[in-house]
Amino acid sequence: MTGRLTAPLRRVLAEAEDVTGRLSGTEAQLETLARHGLAFRHARPPRAYFLTPAGHRLRQELLTAAPPPTARAAATPGGVFTARTGAESEPVADGPARLREVHSAWQGLVELRRMTNPDGSTDRPCAWERGHLVQAAALALEAGDCLPGVAGDGGYVVADTPQPDAVEIRSGGEEAELASYADVLAKAGWHVGEHRARGRGRVLLASPRRV
């Protein structure tokens, strides 16, 4: 598919908003992407264009192959925004810019829920979140006001589990913090349960609520 797209069209795809998939470009470019099945025009005003699932997949391929220097704001200069999971090799810088990025990403995710959940619900996860469990849970946690802001100073770690629809959250500090994390995730539309993991103490298991 990428071979049939011009460089300007590939750039429009790559520069789509990370979470919502909203596109910016000329009307002709956006209509061309729609004809290829990579974009659709939302029925509600302002009738903006957004990536289809095929568009999201192709965008990810483009970013993986050669991340563009103009990609949206990131945890590091020139990269793509990634929520803090607590397992980063280097601490994620905090500050006003990071707070703005997290707020923007969360608002984008809420809008994606509104657009893609069949009933327009924003209080439960959407298909994108169910396909990106660790990043979705990490974004919900980082967007929670009550959470520690610095990885390694308390904080949480979000990780995959053998279960196909669940992630594990463990505390990087006091286990008492788990109650705060569970509360944030529940408010974000996740089912959360506390368990005792062998050799690792108490952990949370969280899965996206479907109804």
TrEMBL record:
<protein>
    <submittedName>
        <fullName>Uncharacterized protein</fullName>
    </submittedName>
</protein>
